[in-house]
2,3-dihydro-2,3-dihydroxybenzoate dehydrogenase (Polaromonas hydrogenivorans), 253 residues
Amino acid sequence: MNGKIAIVTGAAQGIGAAVALALGRRGVRVAALDIQADALAQLAGQQPDGIHPYPVDLRASQAVNAVVEKIEAELGPVDMLVNVAGILRMGSICDMSDDDWDATFAVNLHGVFYLSRAVARRMLPRRQGAIVTVGSNAAAVPRLQMAAYAASKAAAGHFTKCLGLELAGHGIRCNVVSPGSTDTAMQRAFCPSPEDVQKVLDGSLPGYRTGIPLGRIASAQDIAAAVVFLLGDEARHITMHDLRVDGGATLGV
Ligand SMILES: NC(=O)c1ccc[n+]([C@@H]2O[C@H](COP(=O)([O-])OP(=O)(O)OC[C@H]3O[C@@H](n4cnc5c(N)ncnc54)[C@H](O)[C@@H]3O)[C@@H](O)[C@H]2O)c1
């Protein structure tokens, strides 16, 4: 991977930051994208030669096109894209506002489409590249209070597989990594107390959750390791795959 160029979204914190740092350690020049400019600058400070901050709102199609053009002009041709940015708005369907629904799809699906399209257009004539979208295990198993999120992640995952089919003949691979509960700000908002975390580990019959058979919450690095594998040459024969990284929480369905 040394010397390659990657775009990583959601890079200001959590899983995106772990992916950016993991790639940077392998000699990749990382364009780190996020809406949080200050946090991006702090991340870049940890690896000034490897990580380059590009603040952008992924909900804006024109801004996304412009940032990809800027990245290619400043860093060079993009070899890898990792779609990590996402938001979680909890709530039952009957009480959900239009704004919660629209905001969820704007980031988790439309942003993935805008950026993947902009990057794929450039990868296509070069006939090389790898794209990974970070989905969620909630895309495979219905979850209470998570309808918009789960539906947006199912759509983003399936979009990524269709992209993989369109690009396979051009030497470009597209895969999905679907995390379960992972120790980040998103997870801590959902489970603020140690008792909440224990409930996730144990499972809950009223919540229709089976718990986590491996008995731990993932670290962001656990998810980054799967992403790095799918981006690399060791995965050269893998495309349109969905790699579940959830400690068995969805029983592999
Ligand atoms: N943490 C978990 O338990 C978990 C489980 C399954 C899936 N995931 C998925 O993994 C991904 C990363 O999650 P995380 O836990 O690191 O979340 P996080 O909330 O810590 O980080 C998400 C990042 O996305 C950025 N972002 C949000 N909206 C944006 C926008 N419009 N434009 C640009 N950037 C934007 C945020 O600023 C933030 O830095 C998400 O897609 C999430 O759905 C997380």
